[in-house]
C-alpha cells in the first residue's frame, strides 16, 4: 500500500469519442475509497489526432509511462489482439479485448464486458425465465451479451442483426462454445418475440445520438423481460415502452459498472466494492 501511495497507480482508456466516458470517475473514486493514489487517463484517438494505426505506439507509451493497465473500446477491441502477449479464455472466445494488464513487460488481454452484463443480469433480473430470448445486435457488444446469457444458462437464443452475415458468425461461434443451447439466426422478429421469454438489446439505438426503439413496441408483452445495454440515457425509449407494457426491465448501467469492477480488480489487485461503485455510478447519472 505504501509503495502505491508513493508511486501512483496509472491506468487509462483507449478509444474514439470517449470524452463523456464515466470509466475514469468510477475507477478513481473506488481507488480513493481504498486509499490508492489512482490516476486514470482518457486516451482519445480524436483528441490526439491519432488513428487505430497508432495503437502500437499508444500501448508502448503507456508502458513507458508506467501504466498498470488499459481499457480498450471502439474501434480497437479487435485490433489490439495481435499486439498482446496472451489472452484470457474469455477474450479468446469472444475475439475482443476491453482490458489489457501491463505487467513485467508483458501485455495480457481480458474481456470484462461479458461478465459485466452477466453480473448485472444476475442481480437485476434474478427470476428471469431462461427458456428463450431474442437478441437484437450481433456486433462487439452483442457477442459479449450472447456469451454472458448463454453462460448463465439460457436454452434458446435467436439473434437478429441488420447484417445477416454478422448474425450468422455470432451464431456459429456461440453454438460451438455452448453446444447444449440452441443458438440461431432469426428471420421473423415478430414470430421470434411471440416465442421468446425475453429480449436483449445490444445496438446503439436509444442513445442520445441514435434515438428510437429497435423493434415495433407492439411486439413487447408484459410477460417479457427486457435488458438494454445503453446507459446514456439510463431509461431508453425501449425501456420506457417496456415498463409501460408491464415488462421486467434491466438498464445498461449495471453492465457499465461491472465491466469496470472487473477491470479495477485486474489493474489494482484489490477487490472492488461493487455496491459502492454502483452507488457512485448512480450519482454520476442522476
Give the CATH topology of the largest domain.
Rossmann fold
What is the CA-atom radius of gyration, in angstroms?
19 Å
Strand order of the largest sheet: 2-1-3-5-6-4
Mean pLDDT: 95
**According to CATH, what is the class of the largest domain?**
Alpha Beta
Low-pLDDT windows of residues: 1-5
Termini Cα gap:
33 Å
Number of strands: 12
Number of helices: 11
| Major sheet size, sense and barrel closure | 6 strands, mixed
How much of the sequence lies in strands comes to 15-25%
Q: What's the architecture of the largest domain, going by CATH?
A: 3-Layer(aba) Sandwich
CATH superfamily of the largest domain: Leucine Dehydrogenase, chain A, domain 1
Order of helices and strands: HEHEHEEHEEHEHEHEHEEHEHH
Query: What class do helices, strands and sheet pairing give?
Result: alpha/beta
| Relative helix content | 25-40%
Can you tell me the overall shape? globular
> In total, how many domains does the architecture comprise?
2
Description:
One of its GO terms (biological process) is chorismate biosynthetic process. One of its GO terms (cellular component) is cytosol. It comes from Phyllobacterium brassicacearum. The chain has 286 residues and is of the alpha/beta class. It is 40% helix and 20% strand. The chain has eleven helices and twelve strands. The chain has a six-stranded mixed β-sheet with strand order 2-1-3-5-6-4, sandwiched between helices.
Amino acid at each position: 500500500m505504501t509503495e502505491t501511495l508513493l508511486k501512483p497507480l496509472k491506468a487509462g482508456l483507449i478509444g474514439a469519442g470517449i470524452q463523456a466516458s464515466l470509466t475514469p470517475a468510477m475507477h478513481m473514486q473506488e481507488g480513493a475509497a481504498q486509499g490508492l493514489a489512482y490516476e486514470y487517463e482518457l486516451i482519445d484517438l480524436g483528441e490526439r489526432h491519432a488513428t487505430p494505426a497508432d495503437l502500437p505506439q499508444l500501448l508502448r507509451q503507456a508502458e513507458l509511462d508506467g501504466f498498470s493497465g488499459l481499457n480498450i473500446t471502439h474501434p480497437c477491441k479487435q485490433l489490439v489482439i495481435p499486439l498482446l502477449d496472451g489472452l484470457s479464455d474469455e477474450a479468446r472466445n469472444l475475439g475482443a479485448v476491453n482490458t489489457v494488464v501491463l505487467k513485467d513487460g508483458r501485455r495480457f488481454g481480458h474481456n470484462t464486458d461479458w461478465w459485466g452484463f452477466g453480473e448485472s443480469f444476475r442481480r437485476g433480473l434474478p427470476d428471469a425465465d431462461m427458456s428463450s430470448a431474442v437478441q437484437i445486435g450481433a456486433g462487439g457488444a452483442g457477442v459479449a451479451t450472447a456469451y454472458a446469457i448463454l453462460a448463465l444458462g439460457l436454452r434458446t437464443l435467436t439473434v437478429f442483426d441488420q447484417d445477416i452475415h454478422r448474425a450468422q458468425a455470432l451464431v456459429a461461434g456461440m453454438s460451438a462454445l455452448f453446444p447444449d443451447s440452441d443458438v440461431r439466426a432469426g428471420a421473423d422478429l415478430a414470430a421470434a418475440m411471440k416465442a421468446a421469454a425475453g429480449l436483449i438489446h445490444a445496438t446503439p439505438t436509444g442513445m442520445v445520438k441514435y434515438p428510437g426503439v429497435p423493434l415495433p413496441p407492439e411486439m413487447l408483452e408484459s410477460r417479457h423481460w427486457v435488458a438494454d445495454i445503453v446507459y446514456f440515457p439510463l431509461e431508453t425509449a425501449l425501456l420506457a415502452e417496456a415498463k409501460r407494457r408491464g415488462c421486467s426491465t434491466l438498464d445498461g448501467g449495471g453492465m457499465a459498472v461491472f465491466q469496470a469492477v472487473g477491470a479495477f480488480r485486474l489493474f489494482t489487485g484489490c477487490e472492488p466494492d461493487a455496491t459502492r461503485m454502483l452507488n457512485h455510478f448512480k450519482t454520476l447519472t442522476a
